[in-house]
């Protein structure tokens, strides 16, 4: 199945934003989040500047991020990745849902789950 042109642009936006963040360029997010960005994760602030300041100081900033999947359509992008904070052997499975409007990220939700012992998940989580 081929992506629409809009879905392809959304994929490029999300993959580039993820890569810039992984490379430590948190400031890149100022180019891709709307000023009134809405965050739905408990404890994380809404608003572009508040969110960027928060994320730059959060444990995710020092974690290793291993992108597994990106699924997109004309309005949303879903990113599935393994986040491994320093000192954590197994890591945390993360699914981010981003809403995109006019080429900018306007809204975010996520689901976060610690990766259990491999014996507990014979088919793997990721």
TrEMBL record:
Residues 14-108 form the SnoaL-like domain. It comes from the Bacteria. Gene3D superfamilies: 3.10.450.50. It holds the Pfam family SnoaL_2. This is SnoaL-like domain-containing protein.
């Amino acid at each position: 199945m081929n992506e629409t042109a809009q879905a392809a642009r959304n994929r490029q936006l999300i993959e580039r934003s993820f890569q810039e963040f992984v490379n430590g360029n948190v400031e890149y997010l100022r180019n891709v989040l709307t000023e009134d960005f809405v965050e739905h994760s408990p404890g994380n602030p809404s608003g572009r500047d508040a969110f960027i300041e928060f994320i730059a100081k959060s444990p995710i900033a020092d974690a290793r991020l291993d992108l597994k999947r990106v699924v997109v359509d004309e309005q949303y992008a879903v990113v599935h990745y393994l986040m491994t904070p320093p000192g954590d052997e197994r890591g945390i499975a993360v699914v981010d849902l981003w809403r995109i409007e006019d080429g900018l990220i306007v809204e975010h939700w996520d689901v976060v789950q610690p990766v259990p012992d491999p014996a507990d998940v014979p088919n793997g989580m990721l």
